[in-house]
Amino acid sequence: MTTNGTIISYYFICKTKLWLYANRINLEDNSEDVRIGRVLHEINEEQSKNAEISIDNVKIDKITKDYLVEVKKSDSDPEAVKWQVLLYLYIIKQKGIEKRGKIEFIEKNKQDKKVHYVDLTDENEKELLQVLEQIQTLINRPTPPPPKLESKCKKCAYYEYCFI
Ligand code: SF4
Asked: Nearest-CA neighbor of 16 among 150, 139, 145, 140?
């Protein structure tokens, strides 16, 4: 499977999850957080005529004159989102488009949104290419990396798979 936004974010969230997802072991997640994420995604899509742009195997929320915009429902995994956006910036750069990354975190039950900016520098582009290589190595393992129980596991769709 070619690395998409979900896969690169799972690399920073949990490598077991990355392997399971990339090897198509998908469990339906109907948790509240996931449903909220879907609704926010739909609202965002309605609000913008240019909503969601598919390029290669990734779906970008929005591209404006200056920014590539990613909208998230919480800032619980900022590092994962940063690398997701760096991947998108890298993909559009290959198509001759250079933008800054803008991440909008819209908190549950809050009107406010936090905005972070990210740029694809030479340094983090090099790091990104290394991450992409490591992801392919991980995906090609015959078995998943052993799961480690952490607080985030309770909300994970793979919880039962890993620990029950
Ligand atoms: S339950 Fe925990 S260890 Fe298992 S895939 Fe999810 S986050 Fe990773």
From this structure: 145
Domain boundaries along the sequence of the chain: 5-163
Residue type, 45: E
Closest of 142, 143, 76 to residue 103, by C-alpha: 76
Q: Which two tokens stand for residue 17?
A: 């999850």
Which DSSP letter does residue 93 get? H
Pocket test for ligand 1, best of 6, 13, 152 (most atoms within 8 A of CB): 152
Say how far apart CA 15 and CA 148 lie, in whole Å. Answer: 10
Fold annotation for 5-163: Lambda Exonuclease; Chain A (3.90.320)
Q: Give residue ranges with CB within 6 A of ligand 1.
A: 14, 16-17, 147-148, 152-153, 156, 158-159, 162
pTM of the full predicted structure? 0.83
User: Which residue has a Cα nearest atom 5 of ligand 1?
Assistant: 17
Residue 48 pLDDT > 90, yes or no? no
